[in-house]
């Protein structure tokens, strides 16, 4: 017997993924069967045949082998489309650490106005799926010129490839089940390296920025799921890497210190930890998370150590139920300007170099030395096979009418 939909009463698909008009099983009316008011004494009518019959599957068609395969493919495609639509209705947590020397927007800050020092801006945005919002994010990067972009709830798998031109990505993907994940994108012109922080109560991607004069700043992008308690010992493990640090993200924590209303358990834990560790709690004065079923809240916050901040504010630019939060900092180190470059590797040339520098079956007397030589040969081969070209063409941007529609949609969703 072929599968039958309990919504439209047609065959070869499931009611979970049905988008057709409903049809009643009892009276063949244009409503769901559960909403039918037909009397129990009235004769039943099979909606497929439009004639009285008590059997739902009377004269149901047989499934030919080719049609059975088509039906299975249709169910897979329908299910995938439904999941894609569900993802597009959501959003991902994005956090920027950015520096701007222009006043092109109302929310940007001129570094010359802050003691002629370099201003670094950090913004937090909950996107709930990075791949679906990547183009909007790239367009926003052009406006705000971030130095470091931190993202929570990326929903990426290790096999997914996501890149932003002129940025290096450091990711921590969730592999146990769907959702979650964090990432940091850093300008290629900024010296930095990734650090590994193992944590069981939150997800994080962490780096250390090297700004010259032996000045180091630890930056951690953190996502704490709504359920469970956060362990502050794991947060302390991030702070030990340098004397300056900034931890920011979506902590799903509420406390009167940054959010009007009652506190939850994680809010109390984080507030006590910040007070005990002499940390600066940085949060905007407007909500960052918008929910039609609950009150709006400030969930995206930051904790700073030995950093001078000048401003914290939100912007309404990206499709999300979270507004990006900008954290602006001042440092004494001017970051080098970013160069838009394109690197191209000739893999045929790389293969030829490797074939001459690495023997097929070498004799290994010293394992450590052999590994070092092997790594060095590969790095040298890549460098010799790669050419770099400076990009001078302007960025491709979304049309202004599309950008205005996106801004209007974001405003209406958060009314």
TrEMBL record:
Domain of life: Eukaryota
Keywords: Nucleotidyltransferase, RNA-directed DNA polymerase, Transferase
Gene3D superfamilies the record matches: Endonuclease/exonuclease/phosphatase (3.60.10.10)
Region annotation Disordered: where it falls in the sequence: 61-88
Any Pfam family matching the protein: Exo_endo_phos
Molecular-function GO terms, alphabetical: RNA-directed DNA polymerase activity
Residue ranges that the Swiss-Prot or TrEMBL entry lists as coiled coil: none
Endonuclease/exonuclease/phosphatase domain: residues covered: 125-284
Endpoints of the signal sequence: none
Protein name: RNA-directed DNA polymerase from mobile element jockey
Source species: Trichonephila clavipes
The organism's taxonomic lineage, starting at the top: Eukaryota, Metazoa, Ecdysozoa, Arthropoda, Chelicerata
Gene name per UniProt: jockey pol
